[in-house]
Amino acid sequence: MSEWVKKVEAEAKGLLAEAEEEMTVLEGVDTIDPLAEDDPATDDDTKPTSD
After folding, report:
1. DSSP of 1-51, one letter per residue?
2. 1-51, pLDDT tens digit by residue?
């Protein structure tokens, strides 16, 4: 039975390591707020101005 417990613990540690790696990758990604009033990523300089 202790061998089964060790196997499960090893699998859990592997899953935790994968999850931590994914979180590290995701933390480095810039996010875009779709509800932001002024999003520079969507600014379009080709819009006509009302001068």
Report:
1. -HHHHHHHHHHHHHHHHHHHHHHHHHHTS----TT-SS-GGG--TTSPP--
2. 699 999 999 999 999 999 988 888 777 766 666 666 765 555 555 555 665
